[in-house]
């Protein structure tokens, strides 16, 4: 009831700067708790997850007939890798929570209709993030095979576990975050920061930046992983641009309707009784 009365007395959801910081703190705290719980789950499933991550190296020995081993070059290396993998799994498991908290921090500044549209798009953010991670998982064996193909004939691959796991986790996170960028783009449009026409005019720069990001995010010299990342990103970006254009058109129609109603109201004279009251 108190929330309903607060919303009616403050329909635009305006808050002071200090209140914004408090809201941000609460959202970050909830996200951190979710990540910690997810990390605990990551510790439980660490062993089977690690076996799946190093499978591409085992396949090099079994299917390619090459010598490749994963080396732990420090006393605490195994423990450090367990922490890294568990935190990554925590981020993945807690993604519905921290993505919701991110958007819940933005949503109060939007109008009612925009808020519903934003929440529906939040529902797309989680599968997009997980879909990006899954796509990277499919790309991983090919990336490992192509990169190790540069080993000279007769040579062996003694791969540091720290370097390999950093490579794998960076690849998975890069794909997941890349698939979230169109969602952020549409969110900025809902907030009125950017417009669809601006994005259409700069489509060449967008394509260049997407390809540049894909080239930097896909580690090593594997060109195929770059194309695997750039292709879906471009489709998602242009889909987000289309949604931005539709939202801009809807916003313009609403502004025209509001202006027409204001003009019609201005043409109506003020009754004498109201003038007397004034």
TrEMBL record:
Give yes or no: UniProt keyword Protein transport.
yes
The record's gene field reads: tatC
- Residues spanning the membrane: 32-54, 81-105, 117-140, 167-191, 203-221, 227-246
Q: Which GO terms describe its biological process?
A: intracellular protein transmembrane transport; protein transport by the Tat complex
What's the name of the protein?
Sec-independent protein translocase protein TatC
Q: Which GO terms describe its cellular component?
A: TAT protein transport complex
Tell me the NCBIfam families matching this sequence: tatC (TIGR00945)
Q: Please provide the record's keywords in A-Z order.
A: Cell membrane, Membrane, Protein transport, Translocation, Transmembrane, Transmembrane helix, Transport
UniProt GO MF annotations: proton motive force dependent protein transmembrane transporter activity
Record has Cell membrane as a keyword? yes
What Pfam families does its record include?
TatC
HAMAP family recorded for this chain? Answer: TatC
